[in-house]
Amino acid sequence: MGSERNPHVYDRTPKVTVSNFQRDASESNMITIRPEQPDDIADVRAINEAAFGEPAEATIVDSLRNACPDAVSLVAVEDGKILGHIFFSPVFISSGHGIKEGMGLAPMAVLPKRQRQGIGSMLVQAGIDAMRERNCPFIIVLGHPEYYPRFGFVPASQHGLSCQWNGVPDEAFMVLILDDSAMAGVSGTARYRDEFDQAM
Ligand SMILES: CC(C)(COP(=O)(O)OP(=O)(O)OC[C@H]1O[C@@H](n2cnc3c(N)ncnc32)[C@H](O)[C@@H]1OP(=O)(O)O)[C@@H](O)C(=O)NCCC(=O)NCCS
């Protein structure tokens, strides 16, 4: 897949400018979304394992962090403690317009005892902002169909996009188009990096 990639599809310069993305999650504590740092790696793994109850998603993150410099990894931090994590890695759509590169949101995890307090929403919104900043034309997500539409995601089939894996419910495979003109006429199968297949 690496040989198919077009490095000029969009600006990959790693400029995540979300370090000041903050919100009062409670009366006293401030939660900040910032790019992952090397010291966060063990906590990020632990949060993914705890949230998913299995190691597969954490393993995908560890593999892609090493293999894919274009990946974006953000963490939610409160009082120096990491509570949540979101990860984006390149996704490729092969169509009559050549190969269009965007990003896949996966995985995302919030510490179980801190779920349903808005932390996931902060991570998704900061991630979308970071992807816009990079001029990423689209974000794909395979996930809860009742969660992601609140951020603007719609079933990817509405844009002629399909999932590489069989048996995925139509409503669970979603896309957020960030650049309509770049995506005009683009349709086909969206493919994640091979690390996803290898870890599952
Ligand atoms: C999904 C997840 C990241 C959301 O983070 P969060 O901080 O709980 O999300 P928010 O507080 O911003 O939003 C809460 C909303 O998320 C939705 N939600 C949370 N967990 C959900 C789940 N397991 N299934 C479906 N929807 C869920 C609900 O709509 C909830 O709203 P409600 O409390 O009014 O019912 C978190 O629940 C998690 O880590 N889950 C386990 C791992 C996972 O499923 N990751 C996502 C894979 S697509």
Can you put this structure into words, describing what you see?
- Helix 1 (41-52) packs antiparallel against helix 2.
- The chain has helices spanning 41-52, 56-67, 119-133, 180-183, 194-199; strands at residues 21-24, 30-35, 72-78, 81-95, 98-110, 138-142, 154-155, 161-163, 173-177, 188-192.
- The chain is α+β, with helices and mostly antiparallel strands and 200 residues long.
- Mean pLDDT is 89; it is low at 1-17.
- The chain has one domain (2-199): Aminopeptidase.
- Strands 1, 2, 3, 4, 5, 6, 7, 8, 9 and 10 form a 10-stranded mixed sheet that branches.
- The protein is 24% helix and 32% strand.
- The protein contains 5 helices and 10 strands, in the order ββααβββαββββαβα.
- Coenzyme A (COA) binds next to helix 1, strand 5 and helix 3.
- Coenzyme A (COA) is lined by residues 51-52, 107-110, 115-121, 143-144, 146-147.
List keywords for this structure.
alpha+beta; 5 helices; 10 strands; disordered N terminus; binds coenzyme A
Kindly state the mean pLDDT as a whole number? 89
Approximately how much beta-strand content do the residues carry? 25-35%
CATH fold title: Aminopeptidase
Named CATH architecture:
3-Layer(aba) Sandwich
**Sheet/helix structural class:** alpha+beta
How many strands in all? 10
In total, how many domains does the architecture comprise?
1
* Gap from first CA to last CA: 18 Å
How are the SSEs placed, and which strands pair?
Blueprint: E1 21-24, E2 30-35, H1 41-52, H2 56-67, E3 72-78, E4 81-95, E5 98-110, H3 119-133, E6 138-142, E7 154-155, E8 161-163, E9 173-177, H4 180-183, E10 188-192, H5 194-199
The structure holds coenzyme A.
Coenzyme A is lined by residues 51-52, 107-110, 115-121, 143-144, 146-147.
